[in-house]
Amino acid sequence: MPFHDHMPAAPEVSHGGGLRASVAWAMLVLGVGLLFTAEMARREWLDARGRAQVMQQSLADAAQARVLVPLDTGAQALRAMQTVFLSNDRMDQQTFAEYQSNLRAQERVPGFVASAFARLGTQSAARAEYRYELVSPLHGNGMLVGLDIASQPQNLAALHRARDADMPSISAPFRLLQFPDADAAAARGMTVRLPVYSQGPRPVTPEQRRLREIGALAISLRLEPMLRQALQGRILEHMHVAITDLDAPPDQATVFASGVLPEGAAPQRRQVEFGGRRWELQLWPRSTVVETGGIWRVVAAGTIISMLLALLMLSQATTYRRALELGRRMSARFGESEARFRVLNELLPALVLLADGRDGRIVYANQAARNHLGAVLDTPLVSLFANPLLGGQAMAEATAGGSWASQEAMVVTAGGEAFWASASLAQVEVDGAPYLLMVATDTSEQRELTERLRYQAAHDGLTELCNRREFERRLQEALARRQGDADMAPFALLYIDLDQFKLINDVSGHMAGDQLLVQLVHALRAHLRPGDLLARLGGDEFGLLAFDIDEDQAQELAERMRQCIEGVMFVWQDRTYTVSASIGMVMVDRDGCTLKDLLAWADSACYQAKEGGRNRVCSYREDEDTTRRRSEMEWANRLRWALEQDRLLLDYQEVVPLLPSPENPVHIELLLRLREEDGTVFLPGAFIPAAERYGLMPLVDRWVIRTALANFTRLHACGGELRTCAINLSGASIEDDGLADFILDTIYEFGVPAAGICLEITETVAVRNLLRVVRVIERLRAVGCRIALDDFGAGMSSFGYLKNLPVDVIKIDGSFVRDLGSDPMSRAIVNAIAQIGQQRGLKVVAEWVDSERTLATLRELGVDYGQGFVLHRPERVLFQRPGGIRMPSAGLG
Predict the structure, then answer these.
(1) Are 507 and 612 contacting, i.e. CB atoms less than 8 angstroms apart?
(2) Does residue 721 contact residue 669 with C-beta atoms inside 8 Å?
(3) How much is the average pLDDT of 752-761?
(4) Which of 1.10.510.10, 3.30.450.20, 3.30.70.660, 3.40.50.300 is the CATH number of 342-447?
(5) What is the residue-wise DSSP string for 731-754?
(6) pLDDT band, residue 628 (cuts 50/70/90)
(7) What is the pLDDT of residues 414-432, one digit of tens each?
(8) Are 677 and 664 in contact (CB under 8 A)?
(9) Beta-bridge partners for 169
(10) What are phi and psi of 260, to 5 degrees?
(11) DSSP, res 9
């Protein structure tokens, strides 16, 4: 039979002389290999020692930087408190404690013990007194009240240096009074101090600082926990650390020691300077032994390789002659057609089979085919197909003189196992005889990978539920089926949004939130009916499609889901959580609705459930309120897109002086616009209500602030001569704890003079949370920003609140200005506001000035500025006009 070898036995070959030569060569190779291995091991040892030294130097450098971190953090907390005193130097214990709580020094500064304020008292020729009068936290630190920190001359001198330079100073290590029973190391501490000046601008010269000094702030720190936390990790794992104060007496010089320090070894030395003192860091490696794992691996690998090479040389003695004989026989047979076929196909990775063209039995299978299929020689080729019809069709097409194109087919092995393969079949001729050649490639892994990728693209990785894309695809399919089948039963769409889920993430972390979601999904699955589709649409949002269901059944199912979620008790690290869900339900029982409609309706119903108090089910109902909410939702989405695509615009309107002035200063107010993709521009009245309802105003306000400050000199044609730019702040932004920091950081980043920024707050926002607003205003005014009270007069208690608000400008509500010529009451109110502004030294601005008659009346009443169409119509800011170039830093970043 063709394609079978019948090799004769090889003759005996004498190889005594060859063996001796091979042994000699083998020993030579072994010796050279061992010498090379020894050299490589020596180099590996040198490299390991070098790496250890580099690591020690790197850890020493890291320690030098990390020791400064808690000191810098403490100094920053003091600097923030110093700024508070600059805006309000009348501080009591309660207010001081509240500010300290907001600074979160206990969390941010390792080793924190207390913050304190010592007021400058009677100054005598000998020395001044600095007695602590405010301490936070007071519990455990009460013994500090009344303590005079100037009783130590060194501390007094350091405090005076800090006062004159307005820079933090630190003390030498000392025993903290708060820990009388602790050992010396645990009670050792230090203080970081910063001077405090009286209310007003920050003093800039030593003379001003001495005149304005009212006391000093201090943070006391325990050195052991502060430095151990700063150095924790690789530094303390690999190094012994000792820190000494070079400026302290020998008995007080020890700052920190990580344990028993080695003797005799030379340490790495680094120096840290902070607050007028110098600390020396000494670091010794915990182990001087070089890691030898790599060296032994080199020795072992080199020895084994050398021995293998030697054994290979020895093997030549017995195999050389046989290899020559085998080569001779292969050369003799290579001219035969069957051998040529074997040489070309034996090592191919594809499955190659040759079958007799007359009876269809397999006469040859290459190595890959034998490994995959087993013993298939002399079996019918058609038996390899799991589908006999497909196999018969392939044989018929190939036997007819053509070929069967490559197709996916299930192939069966000799052992009965099956796998997917891409196979093709063609008729060939070998030595004048007809054969059928089959070439196949195993595609099982590829198909499995494709299925896995398809599954991952359609499912959420955490919960294994369908994701939003797959859910919307299934919903679209259901809508298409319903349009094609009028008799199809209605189905329901449920939009499930967990209540207060963010609280769990904030308190216990995102890992806890993820585990809660997994537990909830496991519980919800138990309440699903066959055919229902549950999907995770977002972070804490789920969707449910319930088919073949009427409205009562859908309401019952939604209620079961709500109760299921409410009943889950989630325990995480000694905390127990319960959650609830707001569920919006839409019945799909009519034609003509689209995917977008259904998702918007479900979202609207869910929003109604949240507005109704959360933890409830609401069905979608078409009414005026729902229509308005849908419109707001659409505007909210359009606004988000506009923010992402940078389609918000700024116009400016000039605020014009009404009274004669030798100067012509330019004042403007920025007005927000939204440009749609088609170029249509909308005024804020169209989208601001949606932004306020859906919490987008802080994002919008920050965009306006950053964009305006990044392009401050390119807002108006006057460029850098612009005197004031007014920016409106929403109520949501005012309630944002990070607003003041954002504004101050942005002013500093772009170098804009703070006096050129006027921030407008509406009267209703100001009186809604007076204490919070006052704190924000005071921080901003302390650096020079101006504050305007907008829409003044619209509230019921304007005059009563005015005396409590530290503002610079009053903007009279336009409704009074518009009726100024026809309504005596409006004239009386405007007159009263103008007089109050003059008495308090505030500038008064009238809005909505739209006629010369109104303008004349305002001048007669002594109003300072006017704003309206008769004075100036809004224009686009310069950098957004055609041809203008937007600065790249103007984005949110």
Answers:
(1) no
(2) no
(3) 93
(4) 3.30.450.20
(5) HHHHT-TTHHHHHHHHHHHHT--G
(6) low
(7) 888 888 888 888 888 777 7
(8) no
(9) 193
(10) -70, 120
(11) P
Pairing type for strands 213-222 and 112-123 reads antiparallel
Domain boundaries, the chain: 63-285, 342-447, 459-622, 638-886
Q: Which amino acid is at 583?
A: I
**pLDDT tens column, 480-501:** 888 877 678 889 999 999 988 8
The number of residues in the chain equals: 893
Residue 395's H or E segment, with its range, is helix 388-399
Q: Give the Cα separation of 68 and 275 in Å (integer).
A: 11
Q: Round to whole Å and give the CA distance between 758 and 610.
A: 37
Amino acid identity of 570? F
Q: Which residues neighbour 128 within 8 Å (Cβ) at sequence distance 6 or greater? A: 120, 121, 122, 150, 156
Q: How far apart are CA 47 and CA 787, in angstroms?
A: 65
786 in Cβ contact with 755 (< 8 Å): yes
Q: What is the DSSP string of 414-425?
A: TTS-EEEEEEEE
CB-based contacts of 12, cutoff 8 Å, min separation 6: none
Q: Are 751 and 52 in contact (CB under 8 A)?
A: no
The residue assigned the tokens 């926002």 is 765
Q: Which CATH class is domain 459-622?
A: alpha beta
Q: Looking at residue 12, what DSSP letter applies?
A: P
CA–CA dist 22, 311 (Å, integer): 10
504: burial class by Cβ within 10 Å (0-12, 13-18, 19+)?
buried
Can you tell me which residue has the tokens 């085919």?
Answer: 369
Query: Which two three-digit tokens encode residue 405?
Result: 């194109």
Tokens 């505007």, residue located: 635
Q: Which CATH superfamily is domain 638-886 in?
A: EAL domain (3.20.20.450)
Burial class (CB in 10 A: 0-12, 13-18, 19+), 592: exposed
Interatomic CA distance for residues 649 and 703, integer angstroms: 10
Distance CA 736, CA 734 (A): 5
Are 555 and 619 in contact, with CB atoms under 8 Å apart? yes
First to last CA, the chain: 78
Q: Are 241 and 257 in contact (CB under 8 A)?
A: yes
